[in-house]
Each structure stands twice: as C-alpha cells, then as structure tokens.
Amino acid sequence: VKRARIIGTGSYLPEKILTNADLETMVDTSDEWITARTGIQQRRIAAENEMTSDLAVFAAEKALQMAGISADQLDLIIVGTITGDFPWPSTACLVQDRLKATRAAAWDVSAACSGFVYALASASKFIESGSARYALVIGAEVLSRVIDWQDRNTCILFGDGAGAVVLEAQDGDFGILSTHLHADGGDWQLLYQPGFGSRHPASVAGIEQRLPFLKMAGNEVFKTAVRSLYDVAIEALETNGLTAADVHLLFPHQANRRILEAVRKRLELREEQMYVNVDFCGNTSGASIPLALDEANRKGLLRQGDILVFDAFGGGFTWGAALVRW
Ligand code: ACO
Known about the structure:
Blueprint: E1 2-12, E2 16-19, H1 20-24, H2 31-38, E3 42-45, H3 52-67, E4 76-80, H4 91-99, E5 105-109, H5 115-128, E6 134-141, H6 152-155, E7 161-171, E8 175-183, E9 191-192, H7 204-208, E10 215-216, H8 218-239, E11 249-252, H9 257-267, H10 278-281, H11 288-298, E12 307-314, E13 318-325
Parallel strand pairs: 4-5, 4-6, 11-12
Antiparallel strand pairs: 1-7, 2-3, 6-7, 8-13, 9-10, 12-13
Bound molecules: acetyl coenzyme *A (ACO).
C-alpha cells in the first residue's frame, strides 16, 4: 500500500518579538500572570508588509529544499489557515503561484488550530488513493491581525508563524499510519471570529463592536481542549495497536503550557516524550504543529522509525490526530 511519508519540513517565524514586558505596556497584565497561566514568554509578530502567504512560502521553500524536489513536481498544495491573505481566493492559490507549482491543485482548509492536521489528513488520503505523488501541506497564520489588542484575555496568547511538510507516496511501513478527525459545531461560539462574513457583513457599526476580532471563552475552551486532545491521541494509538509507552514524541497543538501539561499527564507521558515550544512562539493556531515538527527535525531529534503523534484541537470545535512512523 502507498503511504504518505514526510520527506521535508520547513518553518518560518517573523523577526519581530513581542515579549510579556511589551504586553504590560499595552494591556493591564503582568509577565508573572502570563507565565504562570500560559507558560508563554514571547511570541513573533509579522511585519506590516508580511502576509500569511509570505510566511507560508518561506516555510514551503525550506521544506521543498529539504525534500530535494522542485515545486513543479507537486500534485497538490493544502494550506491550513484561518487568517489567509483574503477571505478568497485561497492562500494556497497565492502560494501555488509564488512557488510556480504549475501542476498543483491548491486549496485552504478552515479548521482553526486543527487546520494542519485536517490538511495533512486530506493530503495523505490523496496519496494513499494514488491520486497524488507529491503534496505540500502548510499551516500558516498571521493571527496578530485578528487579535483584539485591547482584550487581555486573548491578546497574550497568540503569535504569527508558518510550518510546512512535503509528502511523498512511498511503499512500506514508514509515514502517516493513520489520521483521525472530529468536529462538534455545537460550541462554535466559544472560540470564533464574528465578522466579517455573511452573518455579520462589513459595517462601520461592526468595527465599533469589534466584530473582526477573535473572541474566546478561555476557561471553557481549556477543559474541552484537554479532553479532546487526550481522547484523539488515545484513538490514534489504539488504532495502531500502540500505547503511550511507544511514543517517541507527541506534538500537541501549542495552545499553552498548562493545556499541554494536563494532556501529557493524562497520557502518562514522560516530559521528554512531548515537544513544547509555546514558550517562545505562543499559540500560532494552524501553524503550531508543523513549526514544532520542523524545529525538532532540524535539532536532530527525530530518528527513522520513531513513532510521532500530531495532536490538535481548535475552533469549530475541531480536533484530530495523525500517527506517524518517521
Ligand atoms: N493578565 C492579567 N489578568 C488576566 C489576564 C491577563 N492577561 N487575562 C485574564 N485575566 C484575569 C481575568 O480577568 C480573571 O480575573 P477575575 O477573576 O477578576 O475575573 C482572572 O485573570 C482569571 O481568569 P480566567 O479566565 O479564569 O483565567 P484562567 O486560569 O482560565 O486562564 C487562560 C486564562 C490562560 C486564557 C486559560 O483559560 C486558557 O489557557 N484557556 C485556553 C485558551 C486556549 O489556549 N485557547 C486556544 C486553544 S484552541 C486554539 O488554539 C484556537
């Protein structure tokens, strides 16, 4: 059977660093509060002239270079994002043009912080069915443009960034062994961006009501996130006859350290079995898992045959996991 194997990873973080001390000058908060509640120390913020497609292209170029293939070999490009350059066309189409991926179909996936895992699952199905040989999957976000910088409950959490992987159809037992996707739209109002869409079309009044900015009920999101991240990680392991002891590295969506620690403890994983970089880049939504993966890969932490679990949860609600033999 054909499997989708990750043959290249890449990532990009904007240069500008926003520290907790910087945030103290913007809203009524403290480094102490942010560090204790979230573990986040700093996050990256895109420059004014940097768009989501720019971040995506930078990450993709590095992933293609590592994979050793050229963009015109790609059969498809899927971008997981909720902060695309435009409502439409898709950011994937902009990336397709910039990379000159002339043969590739291109589309975005909207699954908030689960966007990368949803996109990866979609691409791997095309590969397993024989419809694609090479695929580029990207998670890219410029959340700083939809954050309410007057809302201390949310503005401390998020950052900008992008991560990418190149997939190749290969025979054998390496690559993506299974993917598991879930959704429950019943709780959409706990984490969403109210405007501007067909429900709240663009209006001056809407701007005054701050509708274009992310809204979140943090406490309720926290509880559901921990439960869902745990459940779907267990589902992925059990499907493959594995247990937590077999996991080399868990790559959870980097929401905040308390969520990650709660998930790790429930899964009974040792500290070194979970990769965490939320301290330095904050919650980058759909970009967080491929960003963390590329960082770990370039540090030389991944060995052939290692069992990796990608584990995501986000607005929708959506959640999902991918089990990978590296
Ligand atoms: N600085 C100082 N005080 C603050 C801040 C801040 N930045 N933000 C909130 N507070 C205050 C609140 O106003 C509240 O004060 P009150 O008791 O006087 O009303 C107090 O701190 C406690 O607020 P809670 O919301 O109960 O704090 P909690 O312990 O739940 O922590 C947090 C808040 C960090 C947002 C937490 O709920 C959380 O991590 N939630 C998950 C959020 C998340 O990661 N979402 C994304 C996951 S999915 C995705 O990535 C899209």
